[in-house]
Every structure is written in structure tokens, then in C-alpha cells.
Design goal:
- The protein has 212 residues and is mostly helical.
- The relative contact order is 0.06.
- The C terminus is likely disordered.
- 70% of the residues lie in helices and 5% in strands.
Amino acid sequence: TFASKTAATMEPTADNSVGNVTGSNSVNVFLGIGLPWTMSAIYWAIKGPTDDWMRQYAEFGFAVTHPDGAFVVRSGDLTFGVIVFTVGAAVALSLIRVRRVKFGGELGGPYMVKVLSAGLMTLLWFFYIALSVWKIVNKDANFTSQLGAILIGVCVLENVMLVLGVGLYLLKGRASAPPHEEIADLEARSEVTFEGSEQHWQPKPRSVMVAE
């Protein structure tokens, strides 16, 4: 985390920070799953089958295929999770590419752009978590229902981003538009014109006295 923050603030692009985050998550997954599985495989290879192991896995045929016992991890349906992850990753990578082309970098930029970018990335996280929870609750959902849930999630994501963008635009307009009294005062002291929320300023030329 600290390395990513340092890379993001010190370098002109966010390549190293994004790479560090990706690599860090990969290491966490490899160690978080691979190390416990390795320890469990060694444990069951030494201990052998127990009565509980036989009762739990006999109906699946593991007692026949692995009479000396083994660490068993039953396979599940990864299709839904892979599709959801792919959709989120595609959106995130597209956002990073658009930011680099339009604004010259993955981080920073105009206020509305960086706030919307941060909001989209956060919503993608909720998008993945919410659909993963839905799949756990609806274990027997068919492919059509799964596809429908993903499309609904994408529509919700799109509408939330639209509401966020409109809200930021309205807030920015109110914050940048000065009161009428300030406008009149500025126009009296200088050549200031206001068009909506945009301010165009040009100082009035001052008279110069030349001493003889």
C-alpha cells in the first residue's frame, strides 16, 4: 500500500503503483490458498482417513479412489465468478486507458474526472462482492438467471455513476458561482464577466503618472 502510494505520487504515471497492487494481490492469493492447501495435503497424507473423513467423502467415491486419505477440495462453479471478474476488469482497464489518452495519466486530473474515476473503481468492488453474495445465496440459479443478474448489476452501476456525475456537476456549479453582490463588486473594480459558472477576468488598465 505504501509503495503504491509513493509510486503514484512520485512518478509521472501510475504504472508501478498499479503493477504493485496487482502483484501484491496475486501473492496474497497464491500464499493465502497455496500454503494452507499444501499444509492440509501433508497433514492428511500423514494422518490417513478418519471416521469423519470416511462419512463425509465416501458418497463421492473418494474412499475408493483415495483409500489412504487425502485433502479434498470439491470443485465448484467458477464460470459466474470468472464472468463477473472479467466484466469488472474490462471496465477498470478501459477507464485507465481512457484516462491516459484523454488526461495524460491514470491518477489525478480535473476534480470531476478524478472523483468519478474513484467512484467507479469503488462501485466495481461492490459490483463484484454483491454478485458473489447473490451467487452464494442462489446456488441453483441457471445460466439465464446468472446472466440476468450480471446485466442488472451493470445497469445499476451505470445509473449510480450517472446520478453521481449529475450531483457533482450541480455541486460544482453552485460552488463556483459567486453571489450577485460579489459579481457586482468585481465588475466595478475590474473587467470581469460571468457566463454561467465560468469567470473571465481581465484587469482594468491603470492610469500611469509620469513625473516630469
